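Sync notes, pocket subgroup
Present: LS, DG
LS reminded everyone that the earlier model was apo-only. Rerun requested with FE2/S2 (inorganic) cluster included. Inputs:
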Amino acid sequence: MARSRRKSAEQLRSHRWYGVSDLRSFGHRSRTKQMGYGRDDFAGKPVIAVVNTWSEINPCHSHFRQRAEEVKRGIWQAGGFPIELPAMSLSEPFVKPTTMLYRNFLAMETEELLRSHPVDGAVLMGGCDKTTPALIMGAVSMGLPFLFVPAGPMLRGNWRGRTLGSGSDAWKYWADLRAGAIDEQAWNEIEDGIARSPGHCMTMGTASTMTSAAEALGLTLPGAASIPAADSNHARMATASGRRIVDMVWEDLTPPQILDKAAFHNAVRTAMALGGSTNAIIHLIAMAGRAGVDLTLDDFDRLSRSVPVVANIRPSGAYLMEDFYYAGGLRGLMMRLADKLHMGCLTVSGLTLGETLVGAEVHDADVIRTIDDPVFPEGSTAVLRGSLAPDGAVIKPSAAEPHLLQHTGHAVVFHDYNDMAARIDDPGLEVTPDSVLVLQSAGPLGAPGMPEWGQLPIPKKLLEAGVRDMVRVSDARMSGTSYGTCVLHVAPESHVGGPLALVHTGDRISLDVPARRIDLLVDEDELARRHALWQPPPPPYPRGFGAIYARHITQADKGCDFDILASTEPVSEPEIH
Ligand code: FES
């Protein structure tokens, strides 16, 4: 049911800049006219920020210049005044050491851009991994009406007639190259064919997981997250989003009306049914914190047990996002989950989730399975606790070798990434397929930025012997496009003296996913002795963003938000002058 207009032009936030009669407003109007606009273009209209994360180094957003124009077309059509505000691009393939170091800074940038300018509502344009949670976190903290325009997945990759998926097939064929199963010529052809159009990774990686979670939260127009970036439907969705945000401003449809606990539970269940990225746990906990919703690791485990993986998409399944779209997309999947979702949740469309799903269908039952014929019988993620991870750790059982889900082995410890890179392929490394590879100093503070190093490479000599999976444990994250028996996000991290810091090569580690346990089988006296000898390492960065990050970052189980941002305290508006 569409909502009615609740605001007058004088009640618009932008009226304080444009509508009053004083010297400052004269400046705002004359400077807007300097850019070629007339008073009729902006007077009394909702001013809509189009927050655009386009850059020339972000291939996932390379269509965003054009899409921003299409969003603006919709804003004009609906009687709004668009202003495009560029924001940090956070290009996942290029930013070192990791975009995660900058997620909270993009959130801060978004919040401050909206606060400091004459903005009544916002369209957020993102999709490449961290951009989705960052933009939404910032906009939620600001509290203005907003909606999210997801970048859309790129088209399927292709090599010699074989379908290639972002990330997943890069890992797979890299392992084949190292094992001598393919040659350099083939590897170069794969490089040509794996990324064929604008758009984000088209496997069920972090990007597809988070844009889908944004839709399940009610923050996009219905069906938006599944549309491939290169499809003309994507351009039409962008224009429709521009039209809709203007109405949202008049309706005063703000984030607290949409983002309640039920909406976050919808997002978690949807992400689990998609076989989504483990990164979604960190991001959704942080996003919920901004919305004042208490979402914990235990909620993820409980909700995950209640939904099977029904999306047959790599890395948990066989297909890619383009196939998913043709099969009915996220609306089709959510229809499959209808009994498990809160259908009364309000969405940015002004309709409830249930109303937006009317008419949704599944057109290919192998791509979007039924709950009774799933790809994996439980949700994609399990939360572990135990003596190695007192505050929790996560694993993606749907992307792991089933026989490793209950396993005990001797640790082979790498003290940091460089140590691992130097020794992993050493023929003298004492490692067997039953060993447990352990990486330290890869957490939120230790790396810093908690990079996606958690899928430690299989040692070359084991690869050559045909081994493709081993138990791996770290305080790092893992790319959503990765697979393997990787225990991630161990908290507390080793950098702050968590038990992971105390593991020595040769210690026995026990993983029991059905029992949700990860344990270091070393007696307590010995661990106490090691802890007494442990020296805290120096802070990783002395200056700039890194120094601010190091002072304020929280641990993985808290979503890695900054302690100064994770609240719902009202923030005062800028003074009129
Ligand atoms: Fe941008 Fe994967 S690199 S989404």
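DG: The longest strand covers residues 406-414.
LS: Residues 60, 92-93, 128-129, 166, 200-201, 205, 207 surround FE2/S2 (inorganic) cluster (CB under 6 Å).
Action: DG to write up.
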